[in-house]
Amino acid sequence: MTAKTDEFFRKADQLIAAGRFIDGKGWVPATSGNFSAKLSDGNIAITVSGRHKGRLQTDDIMLIDSKGNSLDGKKPSAETLLHTSLYQRFPDVQAVLHPHSINATLTARLFKHEIVLKDYELLKAFAGINTHETRISIPIFANDQDIPRLADKVDNYLDHHTHDVYGYIIAGHGFYTWGASVDDALRHLEALEFLFDVEIRLHGVTRL
């Protein structure tokens, strides 16, 4: 068992607050979703499997190592590998958030392989973007209960798209986004939710 530090409890508090905000928006129904934050020693605070994200307590945040192994005897999400692979790939990433929202679900149904977001002022909510005159692509992957296989598909995509990737959607499931802090990841999440909603409505209008 690894002792939990003051930093762990600070990150846990941030994840708890994020969970309440995200649940308040209706983006993590039932016990869906999972959240994590990286610690300075490389270990990771992550939500325990099967907990309601709007009612998280400190005991609902557990400690894992960089490879996803439990350090406190609790059970992490089945999708832990999707978190740890992002931390391993992007050294600047300090938080990963995964909601199960209506907009992400509909987006995958409508756009199939990717959704392109361009010329929106809100794109400036993403780290490194300072103009609306830009575009980002959010890839869409088929859902898969084999998480290592799904993680390999995501890694293969990221191997060939090394810049300006801010998230990805799992069809019929939800989406992942990340940032340099819990607040940064939450800002990306909220911006993506808004932009998914706009594109869904625009798609419906243009089909009339």
UniProtKB/TrEMBL annotation:
Enzyme class: lyase
Domain annotation Class II aldolase/adducin N-terminal: ranges: 13-200
Binding site for Zn(2+): 98, 100
Pathway: Amino-acid biosynthesis; L-methionine biosynthesis via salvage pathway; L-methionine from S-methyl-5-thio-alpha-D-ribose 1-phosphate: step 2/6
EC number: 4.2.1.109
Cofactor binding notes: Binds 1 zinc ion per subunit.
Keyword hit for Amino-acid biosynthesis: yes
Reaction equation(s) it catalyzes: 5-(methylsulfanyl)-D-ribulose 1-phosphate = 5-methylsulfanyl-2,3-dioxopentyl phosphate + H2O
GO molecular function: methylthioribulose 1-phosphate dehydratase activity
HAMAP family: Salvage_MtnB
Function of the protein: Catalyzes the dehydration of methylthioribulose-1-phosphate (MTRu-1-P) into 2,3-diketo-5-methylthiopentyl-1-phosphate (DK-MTP-1-P).
Protein name, UniProt field: Methylthioribulose-1-phosphate dehydratase
Lineage of the species this protein comes from: Bacteria, Pseudomonadati, Pseudomonadota, Gammaproteobacteria, Methylococcales
